[in-house]
């Protein structure tokens, strides 16, 4: 069996002339990396009949092979150029969900040197140009908008139907050659999630895609040596699903099986699919992991089917709470020969900045810099901001039709806005650990700084498994208050939650950590209002802004003071 991670993983520390310490991986980034389209061509020649992607269909699943994908992409490119008058560098914006036709359009854009812009679905739900949609259209400036059949944008915005485009291109003769491109050419535009501010367009170059996938394969050789088989539901308007996962599959000659977004009612069908295709890697966010474990923890047959060929479960290391980590680690210990890996990234870095150099020991591990990249930890008001430089960093933002510089420091490092520390592992390998988002920190009226990320993580661990999330407030006030989103197990156990928070207060009695009053949320965060990200996590800044009256009521004496049982 292939090695999970490359041998010789070390964190190399260097000191710059200004005294700044920077860190890089001991694993080198391979040179002369091919273009992602060249990887598709390679597999289309070597394994033309292998399934590249499948999607749910009426009855049997619908699939497309590598050979078909390349031929259909080149044919669709011919239609985009010949019928719609597009040329290299033009932008095609799409509202299509993950699937066969969406993949062909993505690959057609690569073939023609077009820029593929993945629009978030919610602002465009009514299919009209307005305040909600204008920032995205101004940023991408699409020459053509493609939408699912029946979408309001076809009538309201002059979009063309994706299924019609796919049908029309079926009869087209595939072009023999692809457009000449360079690593600096833009391949895609993705939009930041808005978790720390208004969404911004981020152009992704072809070179960024190559460096990202080449670096991942260098750190994790099992991805290249055991072509990944993914059962994946992550949305394609985010870089996690629509850039990193699908191109990880294409880069390494694997297969993606598109699944429904996880809900309690869809998990049975997902388990059946997993049993049929035997995923080698499961890539998820906390929301999906919770539902998966809910379904598998007490079903030995389903767990065995899921883990039969599984090499790794991967999640973003900054986003898992201690209670979910314990469940995941316990599941790993009981089932199969797989490991847990994590990473950390951003839209501005083509998805990935760090990856695990070894199987995880605890939540919050971010890992090591990708090969070819450097990380600096720079003091910002008493905390260390993680900053990164390397070939994955985007050339600019796209805002209001203008190119705007990313927040770079004087040495050319991208400022992520996230805090990190270096933590030793039991095997002696130091790794970066997540230390919260700088933008979420605030000060009490006393001037005391509240580090929201570590505080929330500590409270979540204290209240596990009774709380799904906690929002903390107190900026410019005398004390902290919290709104607890109870889990199914915690809805009728407010006294126990109160005792857990009281226990936290006893052990963390400072003004920046003590919760004076708390309440239980009676309704979930509203995705339509931007309070919940597509990763299933509450956007604290947005929730606080939208629900200020709830926290004012707690400050005024509502809810209850934590008390021991």
From TrEMBL:
Domain AMP-dependent synthetase/ligase stretches: 42-398
Q: Which GO terms describe its biological process?
A: fatty acid metabolic process
The GO terms this record gives for MF are: medium-chain fatty acid-CoA ligase activity
Q: Where is the signal peptide?
A: none
Q: Which SUPFAM superfamilies match?
A: Acetyl-CoA synthetase-like (SSF56801)
Protein family membership? Belongs to the ATP-dependent AMP-binding enzyme family.
What this protein is called in its record is AMP-binding protein
Q: Which organism is it from?
A: Aminobacter anthyllidis
Taxonomic classification:
Bacteria, Pseudomonadati, Pseudomonadota, Alphaproteobacteria, Hyphomicrobiales
